[in-house]
Write a structure and sequence with these properties.
Elements (H helix, E strand, L loop, with lengths): L1 H28 L12 E5 L5 E5 H12 L6 H21 L7 E2 L10 H8 L3 H13 L4 E5 L2 E2 L4 E2 L36 E7 H7 L10 E6 L5 E6 L2 E4 H7 L7 E6 L2 E7 L7 E2 H9 L4 H8 L4 E4 L1
Parallel strand pairs: 1-3, 6-13
Antiparallel strand pairs: 1-2, 4-5, 4-14, 7-12, 8-9, 9-10, 11-12
Helix pairs in contact: 2-3, 2-5, 3-5, 3-8, 3-9
Length: 308
């Protein structure tokens, strides 16, 4: 009798357990809409809705690459972006084992756009554009950048001021593969290499938490090797270049300031923190017939490519 009961319970519950397992498996691995059906590595993404989605790494990269660089970029530049984004995600996974998520879906990590968002953005061009992005991700499948056989911090940004920045000046850590390299070719790639922002005198002093004054004294400007401002004094108050940039919502911390009556004119070069790979610089190199691995090794000095 006991034997019969055990058999009946097994018949009832084993299919339920199997079904539940595969339901949970699908929930964890196939949420992006890109449907690669690969399940090797999962990224936990904190979305704008404050929910954590578990997305297959290669599917995740389609959304990241689409959100980070224009689809009009050269394929080798897009492939370089795919590898850099994969490397960044792997490092986050490695460092966030005790966290609820690995990355956010915005610029504080790397921009991720869902399949629905891309359909809305690209409209009738969706099929053509997503095909190009998927090809770039698939052609670099599993590849990441390493230094001494360790996954690197693969930082990247939009546009340099002509040079990349040393990691220690931005994120504090001295890393041999994130040093200053020439990226003067960025200027030819974008109309927004140099931008001008005009701020009223009232707003300028308000953002810097300074008392308004008819006198504007800019002194003690210290620049990094790349030409970006490390520190600056405004009317006797000290600011780091990045703090000043953040307060005034500037595109970079390579800037000049000029007072014109009741306005302040601020001219900036480049866009972003400047560390690692310049996205527009990568596109310029791709146009010069550099391959994606050559681009990556140029911006991440002394590194190698490895495969999962």
């Amino acid at each position: 009798m006991k034997k019969i009961v055990v058999i009946i319970i097994s018949v009832i519950f084993i299919p339920f357990i199997i079904t539940s397992f595969f339901y949970e498996y699908k929930l964890q691995h196939i949420q992006s809409g890109f449907n690669s059906n690969k399940d090797e590595t999962v990224v936990r993404v904190l979305t704008k809705n404050n929910t954590v989605e578990k997305i297959n790494l290669e599917d995740y990269l389609v959304g990241v690459v689409s959100g980070e660089v224009p689809v009009s970029f050269e394929k080798e530049a897009i492939k370089a972006q795919a590898v850099a984004a994969r490397t960044y995600a792997l490092k986050q996974i490695e460092n966030h084992k005790n966290y609820e998520y690995d990355v956010k879906d915005d610029t504080s990590s790397q921009v991720y756009q869902t399949d629905e968002e891309l359909r809305n953005k690209w409209g009738n061009n969706y099929d053509e554009y997503v095909k190009k992005i998927k090809e770039c991700v698939n052609e670099t499948e599993g590849e990441y950048v390493s230094y001494n056989n360790e996954v690197i911090y693969a930082f990247f940004f939009s546009t340099s001021n002509g040079k990349t920045e040393d990691n220690k000046n931005v994120f504090g850590k001295d890393l041999p593969y994130l040093k200053v390299v020439d990226s003067s070719f960025d200027e030819s790639e974008t109309k927004n290499f140099t931008t001008v922002k005009i701020v009223s005198l009232d707003d300028f002093y308000k953002q810097l938490n300074l008392e308004k004054s008819d006198e504007l004294n800019i002194t003690d400007i210290v620049k990094t090797e790349s030409g970006r401002i490390s520190s600056i004094m405004v009317n006797g108050k000290a600011f780091t270049g990045r703090d000043f940039q953040k307060r005034l919502s500037l595109r970079s911390n390579d800037f000049t300031i000029q007072k014109n009556n009741e306005n302040i004119t601020i001219t900036t070069k480049g866009f972003g923190h400047g560390v690692g790979m310049s996205q527009y610089g990568a596109n310029a190199l791709a146009k010069r017939h550099k391959t994606y691995d050559e681009i990556l090794k140029y911006y991440y000095q002394g590194t190698n490519l490895q495969k999962l």
